[in-house]
Each structure stands twice: as C-alpha cells, then as structure tokens.
Amino acid sequence: MPQNFLQKKTVRFKKLHRPITQTTTVKGGEHVDKKALIEQWFLRYGDEIYKFLVYYTGTADVEDLVQEVFIKALQALDLFEGRAQPKTWLLSIARNTAIDHRRKQRLRKWLPDSWLQDVRDERKTPEEWLDLHEEQHELYRSLQQLKPAFREVLILRGIKELSARETADILQWSESKVNVTYHRALKAMKGIWQFREKGGFGDAVKAR
C-alpha cells in the first residue's frame, strides 16, 4: 500500500459519518462501540483489503474504494453475527464494492472491459508501478487476463490464502465449486505464463 495512504489511514477514517446507533452486540453478547470496532478493523485489515482491491480491479488507485468498504461495514455492522472472521466479512464487502464500481464505470463509459482496462492502466503513475515487485507485476498483469471467476478464486485461495470454506462464503459458492474453479484457474494461469515465456502476448490467450 502506498506510504501516504498508511500515514493518513487513521485520519481519513475519522471522516466517516457516525451511525444513528452507536453500539452493537457482537458474538458473546458484548456491547461495543461501532466506530471504534470498525476503526480497529480498518487498522488491522486495511492493507489486506487494499491489496485485494488492487488485484481485483487492475489498478493501484483504490484508496476511495477501501474507504467505501469500511463505510459500508460500519453501516452494516448490526448484520455481522460473528459466524465468519472479520477479514472474511470485509473481503466479501470489498468484492461487492469492486463489482459495483466496475458496473458504474461501464454505465458511464459504455465501453467493453478491455477498453476499461486500458483506461485504468493509463491512470497508473510510475511510482505505483515501481511499488510492485517485478514478479508481482507479472502476476498482476496475468490476473487481469483471466475471466472474473478465475481471477476471484485465485486471489482469495492462492494469494490471500483463504480456506475453501472462507472463499465459498465470500463468493457464495459451494466448496466443491471453489475447488473445481481453483483447479481450472491454476491451469489457465499456467497457460498464460507458458505463452509469455515463449514470447507471446498475453491478450492472445485471454482465459475465458
């Protein structure tokens, strides 16, 4: 995550609007302050959410989306029953936020996904590109060539190292579907990398 975001993370979070109800009941019957709890999660999981959104959207310019994720979490905290881990719940919100963001982009631009990807890449600054290690950059580019279902399961299972059960909860799939899709996604990714090693262009083998 960019250093300036790390430095401003707590300050920016304080701009969130307070909900009408200030407390909520979490697992175990304990009453906690909503904003304090979300701020704690923001500091603990903010980097995880940021990295997930970078991989998912194909751009490092996701700070506003990170803020939106935690605003939504604050507003929906009464619905959190503690059955899932906070990180799993937040990643689910992040995924839905990213999907909504992409849908809004499509409505505004009326352009296909490949064109939107070009626009996102052009907005990336040199500093943001340099923040990614060379190997991470290759992974980052390859992920954008996978169809959404493959990209999602690879990010959650392979990169974020969530269990099949946690991944299924986020994607609202069965565990068997997660395992099958993950296997197919790995095969598709391997094909992309092999093609690149032979000097090919990734777009020619976009996995769908």
Automatic annotation (TrEMBL):
GO terms for molecular function: DNA binding; sigma factor activity. Residues 138-189 form the RNA polymerase sigma factor 70 region 4 type domain. InterPro entries: RNA_pol_sigma-70-like, RNA_pol_sigma-70_dom, RNA_pol_sigma70_ECF_CS, RNA_pol_sigma70_r2, RNA_pol_sigma70_r4_t2, RNA_pol_sigma_r2, RNA_pol_sigma_r3/r4-like, WH-like_DNA-bd_sf. The keyword Transcription applies. Residues 42-106 form the RNA polymerase sigma-70 region domain. It comes from the Bacteria. Belongs to the sigma-70 factor family. ECF subfamily. NCBIfam families: sigma70-ECF. This is RNA polymerase sigma factor. It comes from Brevibacillus borstelensis AK1. The lineage of its organism: Bacteria, Bacillati, Bacillota, Bacilli, Bacillales.
